[in-house]
TrEMBL record, chain A:
Its cofactor is FMN; heme b. Belongs to the MsrQ family. It comes from Candidatus Sulfuritelmatomonas gaucii. Part of the MsrPQ system that repairs oxidized cell envelope proteins containing methionine sulfoxide residues (Met-O), using respiratory chain electrons. Thus protects these proteins from oxidative-stress damage caused by reactive species of oxygen and chlorine. MsrPQ is essential for the maintenance of envelope integrity under bleach stress, rescuing a wide series of structurally unrelated cell envelope proteins from methionine oxidation. MsrQ provides electrons for reduction to the reductase catalytic subunit MsrP, using the quinone pool of the respiratory chain. Heterodimer of a catalytic subunit (MsrP) and a heme-binding subunit (MsrQ). This is Protein-methionine-sulfoxide reductase heme-binding subunit MsrQ. It comes from the Bacteria.
UniProtKB/TrEMBL annotation, chain B:
Part of the MsrPQ system that repairs oxidized cell envelope proteins containing methionine sulfoxide residues (Met-O), using respiratory chain electrons. Thus protects these proteins from oxidative-stress damage caused by reactive species of oxygen and chlorine. MsrPQ is essential for the maintenance of envelope integrity under bleach stress, rescuing a wide series of structurally unrelated cell envelope proteins from methionine oxidation. The catalytic subunit MsrP is non-stereospecific, being able to reduce both (R-) and (S-) diastereoisomers of methionine sulfoxide. This is Protein-methionine-sulfoxide reductase catalytic subunit MsrP. InterPro entries: MsrP, OxRdtase_Mopterin-bd_dom, OxRdtase_Mopterin-bd_sf, TAT_signal. Pfam families: Oxidored_molyb.
């Protein structure tokens, strides 16, 4: 892919990723965030986080499907960082609009409420990934270590999905779609690795 | 203040919601034609002839009298928010779903069957119920277990007036309310949840007889919009909103505590009593504060009151009970 196409596509990805926050800002300015603005902000930032995490997770298995899709990896860091950006907004919503900036309330919540514990865990798992997202960090850590560290995204995604299930009422099935997609993307990794191993073995024995 | 027309409008004279929409679309069709007015009236008549049984009470003015039991000093939540932010899972789990989907609820004819420990089983038509007692204006705070709240100008009369007509036996210790359920009309219920339908709620007899407990027919001067539980529902203002069953078709007097829908789903989260109680947290979130609907996000948060601010009227019902355990 040539440089100008990359720039064009990156711009498009930036714009697409900014849509959820732009809608929130516009809604806040025009006082049009729905009947329960606090819940709207919490839900849309949370959903944006999960969706972006899912798209980030999709890049590796999808690009393996064809050699012509290798360029996809150029967008992985951008998407992952946007997922972290929305996760941060989501956390700030909780800290400001739910806990009222009270440390006591936050400690009590994290200790007592498993859906908050799970959400905070997911965030803490994303934090080192965001901090080591620079090219400098990759070089410093070495590709192998960096890769190993960044496998934490699997755990973060699982925690995020569980956080979603634990937040909705028992009996509500809304999180099922994202759960299935994340499940497929996580399972695709060992399956693709297995297929590749068999293929290379077949090549060797032939 | 008296609002609107006398209540005795024969249902045949009420333009059904469906007919009205057909009327609107026909009207659009005839717009521009010289005979618009005449043709529109004709279309309305034809629509009524085609489906005379779909008459919907929603949107009909109700005549009311004032009540000393109304809540004062609160700013009312807008009709727009009351009708577009609903938990009515039979019509979809998203807050906006009921407003989109509940138009399919067939609210007329409507009967409530009375069963169980009563002198004899009875059936009340909606007209019977509307004539049973003068309708009162009752503004109540409405606190959802999800920690949001509204202030709603309901219309109805004390459930006790209805219960007296039901002649419950002394062995009746609880009242169970069953909501309308038809998987054909409400396919969302089975698609989006694994809840056992129909929706069931219940009250202890003394709670049901408390004058605050309202048999509710309307809000904001008119009959209930479908998404708010048309044509008749219960409102129990000192309990979390899910205790106030919507679109009631059966009232059953029973000896033992009836099963209730959310308690079946998660007994540790939704107790049978479910009184609004800032000291008793939901396992997943605090109940100390709530978000008032319809305000900007930086003004929503407010303190939750014991029994939702109705402690003077209802605290005596729970004397000697441990409300942390019997929540």
């Amino acid at each position: 892919m040539n440089r100008s196409t990359t720039v064009l596509l990156k711009t498009a990805v930036w714009i697409a990723c900014l849509v959820p926050v732009a809608r929130l800002v516009w809604g806040a300015i025009t006082n049009n965030l729905g009947p329960d603005p606090t819940a709207t902000i919490a839900f849309s930032t949370g959903l944006a986080t999960l969706r972006l995490l899912t798209i980030t997770l999709a890049i590796s298995p999808v690009r393996r499907l064809s050699a012509r899709l290798v360029w996809l990896v150029k967008f992985r860091r951008l998407l992952g960082l946007f997922a972290f950006f929305y996760a941060t907004l989501h956390m700030l919503t909780y800290v400001g609009l739910y806990a009222g900036f009270s440390l006591n309330a936050m400690f009590a919540d994290v200790a007592k409420r498993r859906f908050i514990t799970m959400g905070v865990s997911a965030y803490l798992l994303l934090l080192p990934l965001a901090l080591t997202s620079t090219t400098w960090s990759i070089r410093k850590l070495g590709g192998k270590n960096w890769n190993r560290l960044h496998r934490l995204i699997y755990l973060a995604a699982i925690c995020g999905v569980i956080h979603y299930w634990w937040q909705v009422k028992t009996g509500v099935l809304t999180p099922i779609t994202i759960t299935v997609i994340v499940g497929v993307l996580l399972l695709a990794r060992p399956v693709l690795a297995f297929l590749q191993r068999r293929k290379s073995r077949a090549v060797v024995t032939a | 203040m008296l609002i609107g027309k006398p209540p005795d409008i024969p249902s045949s004279e009420i333009t059904s919601r469906d007919a009205y929409f057909r009327y609107l679309s026909r009207r659009r069709f005839f717009k521009g034609a010289a005979a618009t007015g005449v043709a529109a009236i004709g279309a309305e008549r034809i629509a009524q002839l085609v489906s005379p049984r779909t008459a919907v009470h929603a949107g009909t003015k109700l005549q009311t009298v004032p009540s000393p039991l109304t809540t004062t000093g609160e700013q009312l939540t807008s009709l727009e928010d009351i009708t577009h932010y609903n938990n009515y899972y039979e019509f979809g789990v998203d807050k906006g779903d009921p407003a989109r989907n509940a138009g399919r609820l067939p609210t007329s004819p409507w009967n409530i069957k009375v069963e169980g420990k009563v002198a004899k089983p009875l059936t009340f038509s909606l007209d019977d119920l509307l004539k049973l007692h003068p309708l009162e204006d009752r503004v109540y705070r409405h606190r959802c277990v999800e920690a949001w709240s509204m202030v709603i100008p309901w219309i109805g009369y004390s459930l006790s007036e209805f219960i007296k007509q039901c002649q419950p036996l002394p062995s009746a210790k609880y009242v169970q309310f069953l909501s309308y359920y038809n998987s054909g009309v409400e396919p969302w219920a089975a698609r989006q949840t694994n809840i056992y339908w129909p929706y069931s709620e219940g009250l202890r007899m003394d709670e049901a007889m408390n004058p605050l407990t309202l048999l509710t027919f309307g809000l904001y001067g008119e009959t209930l919009p479908n998404q708010d539980g048309a044509p008749v529902r219960i409102v129990v203002p000192w309990k979390y909103g899910f205790k106030s069953a919507k679109s009631i078709v059966t009232v059953k007097f029973v000896e033992k505590e009836p099963h209730t829908t959310w308690n079946d789903q998660a007994p540790d989260e939704y107790g049978f009593y479910s009184n609004v109680n800032p000291n008793r947290d939901h396992p997943r979130w605090s109940q100390k504060t709530e978000r008032r609907i319809g305000l900007p996000f930086y003004e929503q948060r407010r303190t939750t009151l014991m029994f939702n601010g109705y402690a003077d009227q209802v605290a005596s019902l729970y004397q000697g009970m441990n409300l942390m355990k019997d929540f």
